[in-house]
From TrEMBL:
Official protein name in the record: 2-oxoglutarate-dependent ethylene/succinate-forming enzyme
GO biological process per UniProt: ethylene biosynthetic process
Keywords assigned: Ethylene biosynthesis, Iron, Metal-binding, Oxidoreductase
UniProt-listed Enzyme Commission number(s): 1.13.12.19, 1.14.20.7
Pathway(s): Alkene biosynthesis; ethylene biosynthesis via 2-oxoglutarate
CC cofactor: Fe(2+)
Catalytic activity annotation: L-arginine + 2-oxoglutarate + O2 = guanidine + L-glutamate 5-semialdehyde + succinate + CO2; 2-oxoglutarate + O2 + 2 H(+) = ethene + 3 CO2 + H2O
């Protein structure tokens, strides 16, 4: 790691998708530098319309305001991979107490006769608010497109073909999580956080920057650094699966969401977790081998199952 960065770098996606060779090279280098240094970058000019983001926030607010009994109708099973997961259910890998959040998961859509129907559970959709399905499928598609561009931009720095990660994530088990952190209840366990320190499981996460502060990353010196940006920007971070494939050349950065310091208001955010397809093998990339591969190859599916068990969402 060459120079010291003092803040999470802000990159313009347009310079990669539409730029000439020099702009693309600069984007590729800045992404790798930001990922190696912080595991996070901020992404602007990503092409996702403000109207779509605002519609999504409005629908999230309307859904989570429904009566709890109605929301519970959309729980799909112990692994919480689709539909609703209630407040107090998920906890970070090393945390004793549950996070102060409720959420909804949207997965990949496929035709009933698609081979993917044998692999992924179908989505569930709430009866109300109107437009929920259309809006969140549109957001899923838009975030996936931005994510594919990011995966392509990572490849040259790692000496793999441009489509190495893109192919891995095509038809992948990617999930859009619509998150609501309600006002912290007065009887909440004092040790509980909106989201306890954790690393994301997947390759990369494309996070629609929340409507309020709270997200913090743990920097390499062991200090918590707030990741605040304009709500129209995206935040991109590297997960465990990318760390595994890169032999920790790109580490998965620990992050958390702290409880509100001022007004105890609801917070909404929307991470898109980009996963490989279930048969993809996470194995050490040649250029990252260094003194030797630290982890044996594992399928994305086996790795995911192992991690879901650790966070209380499976088994
Ligand atoms: O709400 C946020 O800003 C981050 C959420 C997060 O880190 C997660 O769900 O994995
Ligand atoms: Fe996270």
């Amino acid at each position: 790691m060459a120079r010291k960065l003092t803040r999470v770098p802000e990159l313009s996606l347009r310079t990669f998708t539409r730029g000439g060779p020099d702009e693309r090279r600069a984007f590729i280098d800045a992404l790798m530098e930001g990922f190696q240094y912080f595991g996070f970058i901020i992404l602007k000019d990503h092409g996702i319309g403000r109207d779509l983001l605002q519609r999504a926030y409005g629908l999230a607010e309307a859904f989570f305001a429904l009566p709890e009994a109605e929301k519970l109708r959309y729980m799909t099973g112990p692994d919480g991979q689709r539909g609703y997961t209630p407040f107090g259910r998920e906890h970070a890998k090393d945390s004793r107490v549950a996070d102060l959040k409720e959420f909804w998961h949207v997965g990949r859509e496929f035709a009933p006769d698609s081979p993917l129907a044998k692999i992924y559970p179908p989505n569930v959709w709430p009866e109300r608010p109107a437009g929920f399905r259309e809006t969140f499928l549109a957001l899923y598609g838009a975030l996936e497109e931005a994510g594919f561009a990011m995966l392509e931009a990572l490849a040259p720095s790692l000496g793999v073909p441009d489509d190495y990660f893109r192919r891995m994530a095509t038809d992948g088990n990617s999930i859009l999580r619509i998150l609501h952190y309600p006002p912290v209840p007065p009887d909440a366990d004092p040790a509980a956080l909106r989201a306890a320190p954790h690393e994301d499981i997947n390759l990369i996460t494309i996070l629609v920057a929340a409507n309020g502060a709270g997200l913090e990353l743990l920097d390499r010196d062991g200090n918590w650094l707030p990741v605040d940006t304009d709500p129209d920007n995206l935040i991109v971070d590297a997960g465990d699966m990318l760390a595994r494939a890169t032999n920790d050349v790109i580490p998965a950065t620990t992050h958390r969401v702290v409880n509100p310091k001022g007004l105890n208001a609801s917070r909404y955010s929307m991470p898109f977790f980009m996963h490989p397809h279930s048969g993809a093998v996470l194995e050490c990339i040649e250029s990252c081998r260094g003194a030797g591969a630290k982890y044996p190859p594992i399928t994305a599916d086996a790795f995911l199952k192992q991690r879901l068990k650790e966070i209380g969402l499976a088994g």
